[in-house]
Amino acid sequence: MASVFDDLVGQEHIIEILQAAAAASREGAQTQEMTHAWLFTGPPGSGRSSAAVAFAQSLICRSNGCGNCSDCNSAKTSGHPDVEIIRTEGLSIKVEEIRELLTRVAWAPSMGGWRVVVMEDADRVTDSAANALLKAIEESGTRTVWLLCAPTLHDVLPTIRSRCRHLQLRTPSIEAVTQVLINRDKISPDMALFAAKVSQGHIGRARYLATNEVARSNRKMIMQLPMQLGTLASALQAAQALVDIATEEAKTTSELRDEIEIKKLQEAYGQGATGRSMATGAAKAVKELEKEQKSRSTRMVRDSIDGALIDIATFYRDVVMVQSGNMESMINTDMRDEIESYASFYPEHSTILKINALMDARTNLAHSAAPLVTCEALMCQLVRK
Ligand SMILES: [Zn+2]
Q1: Which of 47, 127, 156, 295 has minimal CB crowding within 10 Å?
Q2: Quick check: helix, strand or coil at residue 165?
């Protein structure tokens, strides 16, 4: 029988727990299985938010999370009155947003047993927002279930994580991702294997690469950067190229969406609107939206640069593998020649230093360092022998 959990790849160990909890909750049992605060952690792309949403569906659905009924469908898109999915477009979730959320979820569930809040980026709550959230989670006896998602346990305040039941998702295997791309997305086996391999088990990224030619050609350009580094000038050029590609990629994804959002908003105000106060209201709302969109695009550029840095890191990782005689586990098999020649030219310890520099740059970016300056500093470090 179809289930909302079918889409989770390589997460059998947690599906079992979630199904048991949903079943216990249906029987009305206040057992240990069913707690009202859960924390889903896992590396990017492991599907932590998909797991949380699937759980939300199975708590709401009257047929064990069938994935087909109107409850399942509306829960998935946050269109269900008892399910709220918080997706952060900005860099942080502020205390005002949490307070607003709390007033929305304060009343009892309208239809079934639970009101479910899925917070996709619980690691982005500010400290004061976390404290407001904590108060809500601590309140026992309510019919609200909190499903928080974060990359690791350390990304969430200890006070919050100690109150949650923790589920750790795994990075799905290359084989599992390949199979999903072939079976579900109808992608050719060769392309599926390539995309699964270079995406390192990040299923969303794998699908994006497998279905998007521009993304593949961008990736190719980025993967050539290590070979182009020789002089200081070339390092600065490479940094600029990386930021340009990432910005362009983020722009193509967001521009169309931004336009549609603005148009929708204007239409909402335009319908039956006359008089000056409506016009002022519309202008103000558009301005607010534009501010949000700007913050979202900043985040998208950062995410895109981060993805590029991870890609470049796999190049150096492959170089180390070759240098230590471990050829079979090469990720970028399409670049075998380049990797081997690089490996024969640079000493192993310098390659490891380069990987460290890449990881440092990612950390700095995550702490809001300026993208171009960060990339310039990084590329200069990648030049050395
Ligand atoms: Zn259903």
Answers
A1: 127
A2: strand
Distance 52 CA to ligand 1 centre (A): 15
Listing DSSP states for 230-284 in one string gives -SHHHHHHHHHHHHHHHHHHHHHHHHHHHHHHHHHHHHHHHTT--SHHHHHHHHH
Find the 17 Cα to ligand 1 centroid distance in Å: 19
Residue showing tokens 């750790």: 168
Separation of 328 CA from ligand 1 center, angstroms? Answer: 44
pLDDT in tens, 314-327: 999 999 999 999 88
Distance from Cα 36 to the centre of ligand 1, integer Å:
21
Q: How many A from CA of 171 to the centre of ligand 1?
A: 27
How many CB atoms sit inside 10 A of residue 158's CB?
9
How far, in Å, is the centroid of ligand 1 from the Cα of 179? 25
- Separation of 49 CA from ligand 1 center, angstroms? 18
Q: Distance, CA 51 to ligand 1 centroid (Å)?
A: 15
Mean pLDDT of the chain: 88
Q: Which residue has the tokens 């981060």?
A: 306
What is the per-residue pLDDT across 269-279, written as a single tens digit (0 to 9) for each? Answer: 775 455 566 67
